[in-house]
Specification:
mainly alpha; single chain; 62% helix
Amino acid sequence: MPTAQDRLKRAFWSVDRVLGGQQSPTRSQRFAARHPLGLGVCIGAPIAILCTAAALGDHASPGEALIPGGLGAALGVVFGLTAWGERHRQRRLRRLGLWTPPTGDRRGEGSAVAEPTAVDGRAPGRTSDR
């Protein structure tokens, strides 16, 4: 008999499927999944700095300026966690075989990392016949 947690998981994935969660990720989604921490910092830090500067511009005390700065940092955390969730969604798509990430460099000229090849018919990395 399925547990409540199993039913919740199935319900989540069915809603995700209805909302298009099994479609291939866009270029910006792939970027966000590759750089969740950087995305969170690049979004949160400027907003925190601008909000703190605006609060200090009104001749507020430094304690009052911490609230807008904290809100900017919280926004960065939300963006970072969303990108982290996108990374896991893409892993699930790969695991289910619904999406294959593109290979090669940005110009589409093939893989940037060469595949190991066997020169003499042996498996790559094998040095002896034993």
